[in-house]
Write a structure and sequence with these properties.
By secondary structure, the chain is mainly alpha-helical. The chain has three helices and two strands, in the order αααββ.
């Protein structure tokens, strides 16, 4: 279920993140989707999709932070 375009991202990602952060999310999700194909590579009983979303959010939070209701690039 990798995302081909930014428009394919879930609403809760597309509606809150700036475009660059969406690009980070999409790339990280797609990479994690491939990397964690094998259930033995995942923690606990997390699904492949759940793991990919967690990795994607972690990638976004590496470069962006939430300031009130908005996400902004870290200084």
């Amino acid at each position: 279920m990798p995302y081909d375009t930014l428009e394919d991202l879930p609403d809760n990602v597309r509606d809150v993140l700036p475009k660059h952060a969406q690009e980070i999310y999409r790339a990280a999700f797609n990479n994690a989707w491939d990397e964690y194909r094998d259930p033995a590579e995942r923690r606990g009983h997390a699904s492949r999709e759940e793991t990919a979303h967690k990795v994607a959010w972690a990638a976004v939070k590496h470069e962006y932070e939430k300031d009130g209701n908005k996400w902004r690039k870290k200084s």
